[in-house]
Amino acid sequence: MVEKINEIIDEIEEEMIAIRRDFHQYPESAWTEFRTASMVARKLKDMGYSIKLGKEVMNEKDRMGVPHEEQLEKHYKRALDQGADREFVEKLKGGFTGVVGLLDCGDGPIVALRFDMDAVEVGECKERAHFPYKEGFASVNENVMHACGHDGHTTIGLAVAKALMGIKDQLKGKIKLIFQPAEEGVRGAKSMTTSGILDDVDIIMGGHIGIKAKGSGMLFCGTSGFLATSKFDAYFKGISTHAGATPEKGKNALLAAASAAMNLHAIPRHSEGFTRINVGKLVAGTGRNVIPSNAHMLIETRGENSELNEYMRESAKRILKNAAEMYDVDLDLQFMGAAESGESDEELIVRAKGLAEKLDAFQMVTDEKIDLGGSEDFAYMMKKVQSQGGKAIYMLFGSDIKDDHHNSKFDFDEKDLKGAAKIFSLLVHDLLKRG
Questions:
Q1: Is residue 404 a contact partner of residue 176, using CB atoms and an 8 Å limit?
Q2: Following DSSP, what letter does each residue of 294-323 receive, concatenated?
Q3: Rounded Cα–Cα distance for residues 17 and 403 (Å)
Q4: E strand residue ranges, 134-237
Q5: CB within 8 A of 14, min separation 6: which ones?
Q6: What is the C-alpha to C-alpha distance for residues 284 and 235, in angstroms, rounded to an integer?
Q7: 228 and which of 35, 117, 171, 309 could share a cystine (Cβ 3.0–4.6 Å)?
Q8: Which H/E stretch holds residue 427?
Q9: Helix boundaries (H) for 26-89
Q10: Average model confidence (pLDDT) for the chain?
Q11: Is the pLDDT of residue 435 over 80?
């Protein structure tokens, strides 16, 4: 089967590169992946997959950080102008941009694979040394680019879909290919997790290009150290007045926010593991002689595990509330994103390593669990499947990364797409192969 999977993936290498470049040229940020998701659905259907999408695979109440309706409509119209598939895009309206492809190969285990689709809100480099710009497939959408490799992940998912369809007669069980929106800001996985699509899943797989695997030919078969995190916005509302003539009539939102910012960073660390908090942005006030009536603060907490993050989150909420009360202003907290902690299962790591060593795609394969050192909302899916007695794995695919993730010059080596598609496909076959 190694030879067969190698053959299928090798034959579609040029197609993979073309698909990746198309997604790269038309990037879409969280909850606006209308073009991307509609094209994924079209390609999956044309391969022979059953399709579920939109509200069929997303729980509306668990979506986080969804843009305002006007923004969603603006990006929806842009997607139509840029070639979104009209058969599917209507079902994605309102930011319900998740897609699941289903392949039923009879009785057997149920395996799910997750691929994220969204881009990062950063403008792409326009220098000749930047490969996408040089080759003419840099982002055409202002202030958004695939600066984290999700264009590659979506492409890998479609290649895996083609490989598995090509060997379906050798499989027993069911496959769910999950194409997830809004990973950036850890906003999208929870809504797909709670929709019910994972309720019967026995094994789930995910992965990422680069991160700590910053060299082509590398494969880290398992990860740990997913930091649990919470992202939220705080809005302070006071009363403006003349700062010189009637200062006593004002309620100063800026001072409330500034006091909160200082005290948030004073939350005691925890003896049971490391924690993080960051006030990343604070905007307040309107003029030199006006008591500020409004302040807006962007905050995140992180914890080594979900319990430690909860400690940070609840401490932060208390400080924000008390700061508002001290300055007699109103407080509105809006939660914008969250992720759990997570860890790959040893059994799948060992299995993946053994299979990867049979492929021609990797020169360095390790089964050592790599500390991710960040947050990933795939952890919601991992924990859901593991809580049902199932197994989960998250791999890192090495590539010669041109600059840091989320940098305007980020790029990866397209030849590394094949290796990721091969190990996913081979691992699914190994789990579902007929006796």
A1: no
A2: EEEEEEEEEESSHHHHHHHHHHHHHHHHHH
A3: 20
A4: 174-180, 203-209, 218-220, 223-224, 228-237
A5: none
A6: 10
A7: 309
A8: helix 417-432
A9: 34-47, 69-81, 86-89
A10: 96
A11: no
Residue 372 predicted with pLDDT over 90: no
Minimal CA–CA distance to 399: which of 184, 131, 136? 131
Quick count: other Cβ atoms within 10 Å of Cβ 130? 18
Strands (E) across 203-329 are located at 203-209, 218-220, 223-224, 228-237, 275-284, 294-303
| CA-wise closest residue to 71 among 28, 12, 130 | 28
What are the beta bridge partners of residue 244?
none
Q: Report the candidate in 430, 428, 420, 426 with the shortest Cα–Cα distance to residue 153.
A: 420
Question: Does position 224 have pLDDT exceeding 90, yes or no?
Answer: no
Residue bearing tokens 């598995």 = 164
The number of beta carbons lying within 10 Å of the beta carbon of residue 358 is 14
The conformational region for residue 241 under phi > 0 = left, psi -120 to 50 = alpha, else beta, is beta
pLDDT at 366 > cutoff 80: yes
360: confidence class by pLDDT, cuts 50, 70, 90: confident
Which amino acid belongs to residue 189?
Answer: A
The first and second tokens of residue 239, run together, are 């009363």
Residue 122 and residue 139: Cα distance in Å, rounded? Answer: 10
The rounded distance, in Å, linking the Cα atoms of 206 and 428 is 12
Q: 77-102 burial by CB neighbour count: b if 16+ within 10 A, else e?
A: ebbeeeebbeebbebbebbbbbbbbe
In this prediction, residue 72 carries a pLDDT of 98
Provide the pLDDT for residue 126. 95
**94 phi, psi to nearest 5 deg:** 85, 5
Read off the pTM. 0.93
**Residue 225: pLDDT band by 50, 70, 90 thresholds?**
confident
Summarize the confidence of residues 421-431 as an average pLDDT. 98
Give the chain's radius of gyration (CA, Å).
23
